[in-house]
Amino acid sequence: MVAELFASLVMSLAPGVKEEPLAKGTAISFEAQTLRGAPIGTEDLKGKPTLIVLWGTSWMTGSLSALDEAERLHKKYGDKLRVVALSNYDVKKDVLSFAESNPGYKMEFWVDTSERKGHAVTIAAKVFKAKEFPSAYVLDKDCKVGGGIVGFKSGDNIEAFIR
Fold first, then answer.
1. pTM
2. Model confidence over 31-62: pLDDT tens digits?
3. What domains are there in the chain, each with its CATH number?
4. Which of 9, 39, 111, 124 could form a disulfide with 54 if both were Cys (CB 3.0 to 4.6 A apart)?
């Protein structure tokens, strides 16, 4: 109850921030794959705050705005914030093609390698409980949720969660 009240207060103090589905402080764990095929996951994120944007080539209209905002933050915070674009429902070749066609994006691109048997098995659904895309979450240096925005786009105040 106290955690929910605190999250509500944080939201009210951060204009433009929408309610996130994961409670602040929730520890998360997942494994994905880099575009080079290497396994990577939350253990690799520990030690530095991370912005994770859940996106996909299937819903590019919203994703482009979210990726543009993520890249802006990547440039602004430099090595103080790790920025990861985690693709959902995409095969690696589609994400690789997108990344190669958009060399201005310097953030990391990861691919969800979960089996494609339904929405409930993707990292976005299973770990982040995301029901709308794109979405963005800030993780602290211990991979605990600091905050998030469902339906993330340029102009949303995700920076309110970056510490």
1. 0.81
2. 999 999 999 999 999 999 999 999 988 776 77
3. 2-161 (3.40.30.10)
4. 124
